[in-house]
Design a protein that fits this description.
The complex is a heterodimer of chains A (317) and B (315). By secondary structure, chain A is an alpha/beta fold. Chain A has an 8-stranded mixed β-sheet, with helices on both faces. Chain A has a 4-stranded antiparallel β-sheet with strand order 2-1-4-5. In chain A, helix 3 packs parallel to helix 6 and helix 4 packs across helix 6. With 315 residues, chain B is mainly α. Chain B is built from 13 helices and no strands. Chain B has a domain of 206 residues: MetI-like (MetI-like fold, Orthogonal Bundle). The chains are: A alpha/beta (317), B mainly alpha (315). Chains A and B meet through helix 2, helix 3 and helix 6 of A and helix 9 and helix 10 of B. Chain A: Its main location: membrane. Chain A: It is found in: Cell inner membrane. Chain A: It is a peripheral membrane protein.
Chain lengths: 317, 315
Amino acid sequence: MLSVENLVVSVRRGPEIVRDVSFEIAPGEILGLVGESGSGKSMTSLALMGLLSPGIDITGGAVRLDGTDITHLQPHQRVARNCGKVAMIFQEPMTSLNPVLRIREQLEEAINVHDPRAGPERARELLDMVRIPDAGHQLNAYPHELSGGMRQRVMIAIALACRPQVLIADEPTTALDVTVQRQVLGLIRELCDSLHMGVLFITHDLGVVAQLADRVAVMYAGKLCERADVGPLFRAPLHPYTNGLLACLPDPESGNAAFETIPGAAPRPGAIPEGCPFSPRCNRAQETCRSGPVPEAHGPERQVAVCHFPVRQEAPA
Amino acid sequence: MSRYVIRRTGAAIMTLIAASIVIFAFIHLIPGDPVYVMLGDGATPEQVAALRDRLGLDEPLVMQYLIWAGNALRGDLGVSIFFETPVTQVIAEGAETSILLASVTMVWIILIGVPVGILAAIRQGTLIDQGLSGLAMLAASLPTFWVGLYLILIFAAGLGWFPSSGYPSIFEEGGLVNLRYLVLPSLALAAPNAALILRLTRASMLDVAREDYIRTARAKGIRPTRVVLRHILRNALLAVVSAFGFTFAALISEAVVTETVFALPGIGRTVVQSILRRDYPVIQGVILITVCLYLVINLIVDLSYRYLDPRVELE
């Protein structure tokens, strides 16, 4: 169980870019983290990995994995302390593998760190797990000899070599063709179930979340504005921002060609409005929204939104 | 694989042919009659006729080139007008000094430039980095002769650790100990070049460190030193290795000033003297050999790339 408690990430001598974010991921569960670019999704994931760039730090809160505090530990320190592992795959499979090393070398490097006693067949086993055909041959390939989808599978294999409790997937399919995207999403779901591994799936694509995730957290301006199971969130969003995002999805049946949009633009870190950060763009906002703390509004099941005036829809007849 | 080798070698040979035509034409670029220019005004008609005959100036131009190039291929670069000995012999006398000087200098450049560049990159933005980068800037901008003179002043005249000038061959009395004559000149020559390699190594390391695959390497949980050495350095050196090639070749021709300051009997000094003596065959010979050296070294660098960067084969 990965639990993130009131996580704050800030630029040294600069603004906070992740503000008071809390969530949990249980084994075998996929949490979709949704938000526009710049909302702090990737920073959250790098903070969980211990891979924040120099000059950006976790300045508050804690990250725990099965009860162990791993907040400020970098990956190699986590290995040294033998605590639980978080592994990560990235958006660009084309540039995420070292161009001058063979797949075997890159895979075995990870195996040696986490599974020093594993034999040479472990690398092959991992490639089989991610459904790479002709694994024995592909082990000797260089990254440039593989397609984008194959490279992303290799990335997943490297991540699995760490035997992670939690896999973070940061927009792993954004750079892939739609058909390949399908296969990779299917693979992630399958591995999550069979290895009983938690997955934090980061995306800006609500369609992907609806297909893949068990639960969803919506991020806006560095904060979570709504958390819910997938069903309730898509059926009845509480937060006006979530509502707006869903309204932006084209509905092929309505025949309405015009796309809905949310007016205005997401605020930049350092220029975030007081009170509810969404209030300047929100059509339900009132005076109380523009200052002071915002209360949580609860919906059915585990649905929570941070909003003064949540959207309450009529129960479907 | 072999196609790449053949293509690279072919390109080098084509370049050599083009360069040899330019070098051959050089003797005909002399205004007026080259024979009079070479021999001076006091030449007797017999001397003029003899030289004209020796240079083959009465043949058609194409034949002249073919004869000259054919001789050059057999190792005959003609005869020095001043020494009246074969040009190859004149050049060979300076070659030992020049090649050893360039080699020792190259060792300094690699030993100082690369590790210090790595250090500056690892400590990016700290006082260490700023200090080293400042020193590199200074080393790159000070003229070689000035650095050479100060080295002589401090380490030869002052402390007496190294000889100040000259170079007896290592095949003569003293043997390898004679290399101490090359310590100060090689340091003077290395300073600006090591500074450039340092800056290149640092910049290249910082570029690679920002790559996505370095983040992947860190995410695996391998130790930071291993990330630097195996992932960052390995890729950063791709850019640096090609700089080694042309730096080495440039050292042979750049060494003129250093050879003068330290009174070294190298090729650079031979060239300068030959220019003053209007000894055209020697000048031609040196240029031709320098061109060959550039081509061979660049060919070696290109071919070694195949081992350093697996992507090269495809291109």
